[in-house]
Amino acid sequence: MTVSRFHGSSALAWAVGTGLSLLAATAAAATAAAADFDPRRHDATRALVGELAEKGIERDWLERVMGEAAFQQGVLDAMAGAAERRLRWDEYRRIFLQPERIHRGVTFIEAHRDAFRRAEAEYGVPPEVIAAIIGVETSYGRFTGRHRVLDSLATLAFHHPTRGDFFRGELGAFLEITHEQGVEPGELQGSYAGAMGYPQFIPTSYRAYAVDFDDDGIRDLWTNPVDAIGSVGNYFAEHGWRAGEPLYHEAEGPAPPPADIDFNRAARPPAVPAAALADAGLEVPEGLAEEHRLLPVSLEDGEQNWRYVLGEHNFYVITRYNHSHLYAMAVIELAEAIADARALDAHWLEAVSRVAEEAP
């Protein structure tokens, strides 16, 4: 047992003095955090305020809002540990392919049947794919984030070590959107990366692709699932979705993956010819031309068991939403599970049988 060496009034004086010092330090840290992005003391924030004021946003409004933004170290920490960077496919899949999420996907489509029907007619994207995006992102609007978007974007804009310029643009877009729609920026919550609403659009995507799908005069992705459904469809259409085309082919192949094939490059369009995949030992489906370009994906389960998927153009379009092959596979498998639960023939998902039937 440790016995204090302080006694009587000396101990009290030490404790009070230490406590006051800690309180003072905490208060100072809190004040510094609150003032971290105050344009009166932060040159980079002041420059952004000036740019947005030139676009017609009231300077007083901008200065007040940015004066309320606070640095969040947890945002930077979360950016460094994203699940797509640290999990195997089997671990990642378990997060999203659960019976409850599948069931909620079915009920979400049924609850908004007209919006999904219109989105497919206008944008060519099947309901199950749109629902799977929203299901993976926020479990159909149930979990839209717990970080203040203003804090996240300010932190990333001015403190991210490599992508500050990108997030500065997102912060500017966020301020423009909230000002235009009369929303108080400090009241909105989202992901640690500043993504918002049912579909987790970052602000520049919100500005570019959000649609007023129920014609009420407002593009509201925070609380309006109908606008979210139309906006996801529009996002895919604007990124080149090809209606009725498949997403992928299953393929057999050697273990481990052939070293001369560039797997899992989801950030670029399909680039590997079918002939090169066949030469490397993968069983490419019959009916594909030798020069047909694919996006090869290798998925490992932790026990040296490998699964191969050959992504088509629409697979790549899904990765425009999140540049991860794991993300695309989670969306595809959730969409397939929702379609199965709805007892539908999801011909747009896996292409092996259809290509074989169409082969000359």
From TrEMBL:
Which chain positions lie within coiled-coil regions? none
Q: Where's the Transglycosylase SLT domain?
A: 46-336
State the name under which the record lists this protein: Membrane-bound lytic murein transglycosylase B
Which UniProt keywords are listed?
Signal
Matches recorded under CDD domains: Slt35-like (cd13399)
Q: Where is the active site?
A: E137
Q: Does the keyword Kinase apply?
A: no
Position of the signal peptide: 1-29
Give the UniProt record's GO annotations in the biological process aspect: peptidoglycan catabolic process
Q: What GO molecular function terms would the record report?
A: peptidoglycan lytic transglycosylase activity
In which organism is this protein found?
Halomonas campaniensis
